[in-house]
Write a structure and sequence with these properties.
- Two copies of one chain form a homodimer.
- In chain A, helix 8 packs across helix 9.
- Chain A is mainly alpha-helical and about 190 residues long.
- Chain A is elongated, with a radius of gyration of 19 Å.
- Chain A has ten helices and no strands.
- At the A-B interface, helix 7, helix 9 and helix 10 of A face helix 7, helix 9 and helix 10 of B.
- Chain A binds a DNA duplex (30 and 30 nucleotides) through helix 3.
DNA sequence: ATCAATGTGTAGCGGGCGCTACAAATAATA
DNA sequence: TATTATTTGTAGCGCCCGCTACACATTGAT
């Protein structure tokens, strides 16, 4: 019983994700979101309930697609050295695509407006931790494998790369030369023994 | 002729800077700014003209005090290796002070809300470039001195440290263990040959 | 004392925000 | 067909935003 849902939920989330990805959480207005989602207030508040909840759904969608692809690039190669380079490549490739927003939605969520909302904060930190954990585990395996020396500093190296990555996502809107960024990354990784 | 200005301009800028520093540009409201500056709309729009202009004045104030101190730490030591460590120390020291906002106002200005305003964008990028230039020059001198090897990659190394620094300012609100951060920095610098 | 110039306080404008109230439309069930 | 449940469109609420209009206060010059 009851009327049927008319709008395409997945498509709506996809559209909203794009917009959040481009403009950030608090600077994207609900009316603008509704416009690209092609639904009205009625439908929205009947199903998704709030802007905060929508952002959470978008983050999940983003992590299931973009983040997933990047993580796969890291993990699918047995060598962590090649894996981390494949990971960075997926990041830089998306930079070349003019139809793609410039910053990582997840990394961009490490900002006050998002972190103020406890629900969002918990999810964002958990997701970022998960990614770091995968990277750390990959490094640890490589250390035991012999790909990395026995005394390799797994923990600290993982942290440095994560921190650098955050910086990269920030600086990248202002940096235009891909070759330079690639050189930067290569030098950093070599310096870290990767 | 005409009435005298009653409020303390420098004190007002100081107070506004603190607030912007804590909350960012677009998320700090004018009324909240006026409250801490202890002036009314009348005085404000008669002298400072706009929120954008106020932010610019605050950035200048910040760079003349905080950024200046950090740059001095980098430059005052003849060794670039010790200088860069002294620089990071000034950053971490301010972290310990609970009365200090957690992020760098200048680094925090590398965000959409600020960069959208062309006037602000130009100033922010110019200031960041200036800092990077000083660091690059310091590295170059050290290379010619012999403190660094003749084939040291000055340009790329400077870029990596700048990018890492951006990431550090982002990640740092979520990182609480100073010793860990110090270890991260030390490992990074050693890895870069510094 | 008068006057022009400038600073200050107040009241509020126009607009956007996230969100809600509610009636109309559409579905399954009796 | 009448009833009940759910979705949808619309109109607008209450609030905050940056900013402005304007009367009033205070100054130095005449």
């Amino acid at each position: 019983m009851g009327r049927k849902i008319e709008f395409d939920y997945n498509r709506a989330i996809e559209k909203a994700t794009r917009l959040f990805w481009e403009k950030g959480y608090s600077r994207t207005s609900l009316r603008e979101l509704l416009r690209v989602m092609q639904i009205g207030e009625g439908s929205f508040y009947n199903s998704i309930k709030s802007k905060k909840q929508l952002y959470l759904e978008c983050l999940k969608h983003y992590n299931n697609t973009v983040s997933r692809r990047r993580l796969d690039a890291l993990l699918s190669d047995p060598s962590v050295k090649r894996g981390i380079r494949a990971f960075f490549k997926t990041v830089l490739d998306e930079l070349d695509n003019p139809r793609t927003p410039r910053v990582c939605l997840l990394a961009g969520s490490l900002s006050n407006d998002v972190l103020e909302e406890r629900t969002l904060e918990r999810y964002v930190l958990a997701e970022m931790t998960t990614f770091a954990d995968h990277f750390r585990a990959k490094l640890e395996t490589a250390r035991k494998n012999g790909e990395l020396p026995a005394n390799f500093k797994v923990e600290i190296t993982a942290q440095i790369v994560m921190t650098y990555l955050q910086g990269l996502f920030r600086v990248i809107r202002v940096l235009h030369n891909r070759a330079e960024v690639e050189a930067q990354i290569e030098t950093l990784l070599k310096g870290l023994g990767l």
